[in-house]
Amino acid sequence: MARAKKRDPKSEALAQDGVLNPNPEAVRDPSFVSNSFFDAKDLVQVRYEMVRRHQVDGVAISEAAETFGVTRPTFYKAQSALQTAGLAGLLPNRRGPKGGHKVSAEVVAFVAALKAARPELTTSHCLDAIEARFGVKVHRRSLERALARKKKRLNPA
């Protein structure tokens, strides 16, 4: 019989916010080892303390990076982010596109008007019309998701 994994609500919350340190075991700083206030799983706290160790305590950059389980370039990125944006700069950025850059509101409105005028139009026909009108090739699923979001906004369940 497999034992159930012990739930850690803080780790779950950190993961949900995208700030769970993927390598907490690499953090060897004495504060994180001996003091329960410091949590090696909290990526923002680890990066902040790493930069603070260098700036306030005068620890060499290479030593601070090694102690906190990161590379020197990662240290420099954290230092720069902290200087330019404060603590918020230490939050990881969302990767990938920040939204449907091809399926704009204008494209969705165009397709909605097409479908209103001719409900029998298939997604393939709509894709052809989008390419002809806007000069962009949109994937079928991207258009379907955009239309579903629009429908959901109009008819919240």
Properties at a glance:
157 residues; 8 helices
Beta-strand level of the residues, as a percent range? under 5%
Number of strands: 0
Q: How would you spell out the order of helices and strands?
A: HHHHHHHH
- Helix content estimate: 55-70%
| Overall morphology | elongated
Overall pLDDT metric:
90
Largest sheet: none
Structural class: mainly alpha
* Unreliable sequence segments: none
Count, helices: 8
Number of individual domains = 2
Could you write a compact summary of the structure shown?
This protein has 157 residues and is mainly alpha-helical.
What can you see in these coordinates?
The chain has helices spanning 9-17, 30-34, 43-55, 61-67, 72-85, 105-117, 123-134, 140-154. The chain is mostly helical. It has two domains: 12-90, no CATH class; 105-150. Helix 3 packs antiparallel against helix 4, helix 3 (43-55) crosses helix 5 and helix 6 (105-117) crosses helix 7. It is elongated and about 70 Å long. The two termini are 41 Å apart. The mean pLDDT is 90.
